[in-house]
Amino acid sequence: MQVRAKHKLCRRIGTCIWGSPKCPSAKRPYKAGPHGKTGQKELSTFAELLLEKQKLKAFYAMTEAQLRLAYQEAKRSKVQTDFKLLRNLEFRLSSVVYRGGLAPTIFAAKQYVTHRHIRIDGKIVNRPSYVVKPGQVISINVEKDPAIASMAKNVNCEVPAYFQLDKDNCKVTIAREPVPGEIPTNVEVMRVVEFYAR
Predict the structure, then answer these.
(1) pLDDT of residue 48
(2) Strand partners, 173
(3) Rounded CA gap, 37 and 28, in Å?
(4) In the predicted structure, residue 89 carries a pLDDT above the cut 60
(5) How many CB atoms lie within 10 A of CB 124?
(6) How far apart are CA 55 and CA 9, in angstroms?
(7) Partners of 166 in the beta sheet?
(8) Which class in CATH covers the domain with range 89-174?
(9) Do 166 and 173 touch, CB atoms closer than 8 A?
(10) Which residues partner with 131 through β-bridges?
(11) Model confidence at 152, in pLDDT bands (50, 70, 90)?
């Protein structure tokens, strides 16, 4: 039941938010329910903005309060708000563990962090919301956490260019800052900014 709930939004939009081939939307790319195939109707502008916000929130496994706080912080920056928001979300510790190839899902990444399996520059950090910086090294202690390290080595994903993955040693280095348009996501972040700017 819990696993299906994570992919509820995927069924609604007809494709998996995280690109998982095991997602229920792969077999049934339409809304759940008896009218799922025939009940598709045109969305209002507000509904479209809301949907993009929900997609971004689900993609990074955040709460509404966390996403709103991230937006407010990005808005105060001198950098373009949509890019700054996406950059900050991408550099959250849980996101780096997932996108860097150390965890199979964003939910597993959050669990690794909260259960104290993740280190930053050798020190344990158990806050998924911690924002990492270029040059920092995120790792799993292979000797102390052999089961987690073994799972990390079996993760198969495409790692963005601004992360450097050392799979054998279960380490991800933040190589550099991403450039606008480089962060891979299926969300129109500008619409999320428009939603909060209403």
Answers:
(1) 85
(2) 137, 164
(3) 9
(4) yes
(5) 11
(6) 8
(7) 171
(8) alpha beta
(9) yes
(10) 92
(11) very high
Q: What is the CA radius of gyration of the chain?
A: 18
Domain boundaries, given as residue ranges, for the chain: 2-33+42-86, 89-174
Place of tokens 């911690």: 130
Q: Find the DSSP H helices in the chain.
A: 2-6, 8-13, 24-27, 45-59, 64-75, 81-90, 93-99, 106-114, 146-153, 189-197
pLDDT score of 86 more than 70: yes
Which architecture does CATH list for 2-33+42-86? Orthogonal Bundle (1.10)
Distances (CA, A) of 44 to 47, 49, 55, 56, 166: 5, 9, 17, 19, 46
Pairing of strands 163-166, 123-124: unpaired
Residue type for 158, please? Answer: E
- Which single residue is written with the structure tokens 């708000």? 81
Q: 46 or 36: whose pLDDT is higher?
A: 46
Residue with tokens 């891979």, as numbered in its chain: 184
Locate 25 and state its tokens: 């939307």
Instruction: Please tell me the distance from the alpha carbon of residue 81 to that of residue 65, in angstroms, as a whole number.
Output: 18
Per 3-state DSSP, the chain is made up of helix, strand and coil in percentages (nearest 5) of 45, 10, 45
Written as six digits, the tokens of 144 are 């102390």
Q: Over 80: is that where the pLDDT of 18 sits?
A: no
Sheet holding 163-166, edge to edge: 123-124, 118-120, 137-140, 171-174, 163-166
- Average predicted confidence (pLDDT) for the chain: 85
